[in-house]
Inverse folding.
């Protein structure tokens, strides 16, 4: 039987966690990051039991993977080209089994092995709720992607389909809304995988850099869709003082995606798809779509500040989406 954290001393817990980091990396209270001419991008994201994961839908390994992926997605959406590493703060009740913690750190290690970086350090504390807070550090490439860099005339593009993570959650929870729906098995599998093991779009950033037309400046508006596709578009528009027109016939959905409610809502506001949402000059968007086959145009940026409309009827889009502090 796995011991609980209450059974382990703090020294023993740290000793066990140290095997997930380079030798002696966790022996001090600080970590030294080598100097580099490239600016350092820093991001912190928190995963809370009952909000971002649960035993019913997420294995311990997937908890660790998802926590890392969420942070690296933010770095990618800012223009990171290399991951230095992460720090991890773990809070858990004393009754938490070591096997759960071990699984979480195996997931963290697997994600770092896939995308780069090392475990730089962190902290552990007893608390009433399981919580994982990660700070990630990455190096900026030649393009600093900003939410406030969208400009009227830009094309809105996204790196892949949306709604899959929300569908995956519904399937894992045996949600009545999908219980009797005849969905392709490939769509079901893809949705569950997207929810449990999301992909930060670091490779797509590299492709964006590689395909920039020479005559264009290094300017791109962008963010990721962690809080939903619409939330990302709203963030771009509000930060840039612009508006947008969206094409309802070009919503980025996966093959086999049903029509109607709740499917359109899940595409627009399901959240946790972690795709890039970019505002690019048309010529750059054209080339990037050739480099990233799953990417799709979804609309265009205009000068109608703060207003998102549908292209087919010019009506305003209901931009209500995920709110971290909204009512459950």
């Amino acid at each position: 039987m796995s011991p609980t954290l209450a059974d382990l001393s703090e020294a023993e817990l740290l000793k066990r966690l140290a095997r997930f980091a380079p030798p002696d990396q966790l022996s001090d209270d600080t970590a030294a990051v080598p100097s580099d001419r490239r600016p350092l991008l820093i991001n912190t994201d928190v995963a809370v039991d009952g909000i971002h994961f649960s035993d019913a839908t997420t294995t311990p390994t997937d908890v660790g993977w998802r926590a890392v992926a969420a942070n690296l997605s933010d770095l990618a959406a800012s223009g990171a080209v290399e991951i230095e590493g992460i720090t991890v703060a773990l809070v858990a009740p004393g009754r938490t089994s070591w096997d759960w913690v071990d699984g979480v750190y195996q997931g963290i290690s697997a994600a770092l092995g896939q995308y780069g970086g090392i475990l730089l350090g962190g902290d552990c504390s007893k608390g009433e709720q399981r919580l994982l807070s990660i700070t990630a550090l990455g190096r900026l490439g030649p393009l600093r992607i900003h939410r406030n860099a969208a400009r009227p005339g830009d094309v809105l593009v996204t790196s892949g389909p949306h709604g899959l993570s929300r569908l995956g959650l519904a399937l894992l929870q045996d949600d009545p809304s999908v219980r009797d729906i005849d969905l392709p098995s490939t769509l079901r599998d893809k949705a569950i995988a997207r929810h449990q093991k999301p992909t930060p779009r670091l490779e797509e950033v590299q492709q964006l850099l590689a395909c920039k037309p020479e005559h264009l400046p290094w300017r791109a508006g962008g963010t990721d869709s962690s809080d939903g596709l619409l939330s990302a578009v709203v963030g771009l528009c509000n930060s840039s003082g612009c508006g947008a027109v969206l094409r309802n016939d070009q919503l980025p959905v996966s093959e086999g995606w049903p029509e109607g409610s709740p499917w359109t809502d899940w595409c627009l506001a399901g959240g946790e798809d972690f795709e890039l949402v970019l505002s690019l000059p048309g010529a750059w968007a054209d080339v990037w779509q050739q480099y990233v086959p799953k990417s799709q145009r979804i609309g265009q940026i205009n000068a109608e500040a703060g207003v998102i409309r549908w292209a087919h009827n010019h009506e305003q889009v209901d931009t209500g989406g995920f709110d971290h502090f909204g009512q459950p």
In short: The two ends are 36 Å apart (CA to CA). The longest strand covers residues 80-92. The chain has two domains: 10-27+37-140, 147-310.
